[in-house]
Structure to design on (397 residues):
């Protein structure tokens, strides 16, 4: 263990509320001790869930692990907490670039440069994205964008294929995400109990009328329209939202997933659901 | 034994953003005790909140998980929070957009423990 890590570890042990977990986590990350870095930052996040820098650091650790989807969520949380956070813009810009979404990548990288104009890495990344955009405009773009395109559902596909396509590419697309119509019919996604039983249709049926009830309660209390319903249990958390007026999105994850990330995942799944519904015309 | 709900509910209504707190029968949504700071139809809210909690409880158990410990209905202008208390009661709090959900949740779980 290097001296600086030893010193910071001792500081953190002496004062667990210290913000030294940020440089300690980064030092561990840079030494590729990713599991240790992850533990340090998760402990820090449990004390400082609203600290954008901590979510940014966690995003970088997840990115180093190759877990880009969760990294995207963490940087998304960081930007909700601090819309000008340079590290989070840089991270999301990188992910968009990897996905071939160059315009979104450029937008985030430029916002990162506004906050941190002397970051050579950001400037180099912007130059690279601008080059890729120029190539795209003359029809010679690489295949990344095409590879990222989600195939639209076709009439010849089986219902099972359609059910799978709604959340294609998202974590838990077939287990832990459900799109349900107002009558409690499953439109997409899937859900299995911890014992492995398929419970998707049973749970979908229970969602019939939930949106109406939630809205009635909210209006009686004069607290606006319902936006989300979070349910905690000792061995799993649920998040409900309404991607459209006629549908309910049901997301389930184990309790180790922070509620902020659950909400971020729900946002992304809701966007995928809306895109899919629009593609049906 | 008679349970005094007054003080625990008052504790909750003193929290920032909280506009009302109730103890409600989980099965039929009948109000057992309330501390409402405004002219709110407590009976109607209690019935709807109980129905919502019951439905979500069924969904959670159908998923294969243990019964809910906390429910949070986020709305565009506030929040409705529910903590199942014992086997047959619900502790309900609602509030305006400035409600501190994290703190209120902790206090609700404390009060629930006292009432249990």
């Amino acid at each position: 263990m290097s001296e600086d890590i030893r010193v910071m570890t001792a500081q953190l042990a002496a004062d667990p509320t210290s913000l030294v977990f940020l440089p300690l986590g980064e030092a561990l990350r840079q030494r590729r001790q990713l599991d240790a870095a992850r533990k340090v930052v998760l402990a820090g996040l449990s004390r400082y869930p609203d600290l954008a820098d901590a979510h940014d650091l966690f995003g970088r650790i997840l990115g180093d692990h190759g877990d880009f989807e969760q990294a995207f969520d963490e940087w998304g949380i960081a930007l909700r907490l601090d819309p000008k956070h340079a590290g989070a813009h840089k991270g999301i810009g990188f992910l968009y670039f990897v996905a071939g979404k160059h315009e979104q990548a450029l937008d985030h990288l430029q916002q990162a440069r506004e906050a941190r104009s002397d970051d050579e890495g950001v400037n180099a990344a912007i130059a690279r994205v601008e080059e890729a955009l120029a190539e795209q405009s003359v029809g010679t773009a690489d295949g990344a964008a095409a590879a990222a395109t989600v195939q639209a559902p076709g009439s010849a596909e089986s219902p099972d294929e359609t059910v799978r396509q709604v959340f294609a590419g998202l974590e838990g697309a077939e287990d832990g995400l459900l799109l349900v119509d107002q009558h409690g019919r499953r439109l997409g996604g899937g859900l299995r109990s911890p014992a492995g039983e398929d419970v998707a249709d049973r749970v979908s049926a229970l969602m019939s009328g939930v949106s109406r009830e939630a809205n009635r309660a909210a209006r009686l209390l004069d607290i606006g329209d319902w936006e989300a319903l979070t349910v905690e249990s000792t061995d799993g958390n649920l998040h409900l939202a309404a991607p459209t007026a006629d549908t309910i999105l049901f997301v389930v994850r184990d309790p180790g997933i922070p509620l902020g990330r659950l909400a971020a995942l729900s946002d992304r799944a809701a966007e995928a659901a809306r895109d899919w519904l629009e593609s049906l015309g | 034994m008679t349970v005094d709900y007054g003080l625990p509910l008052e504790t909750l209504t003193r929290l920032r953003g909280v506009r009302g707190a109730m103890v409600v029968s989980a099965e039929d949504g009948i109000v057992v005790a309330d501390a409402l700071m405004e002219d709110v139809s407590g009976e109607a809210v209690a019935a709807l909140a109980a129905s919502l909690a019951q439905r979500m409880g069924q969904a959670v158990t159908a998923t294969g998980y243990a019964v809910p410990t906390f429910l949070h209905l986020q709305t565009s202008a506030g929040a409705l929070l529910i903590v199942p208390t014992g086997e047959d009661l619900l502790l309900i709090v609602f509030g305006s957009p400035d409600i501190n959900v994290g703190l209120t949740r902790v206090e609700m779980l404390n009060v629930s423990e006292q009432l249990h």
User: Anything to note?
Assistant: Residues 55 and 77 of chain A are 7 Å apart (CA to CA).
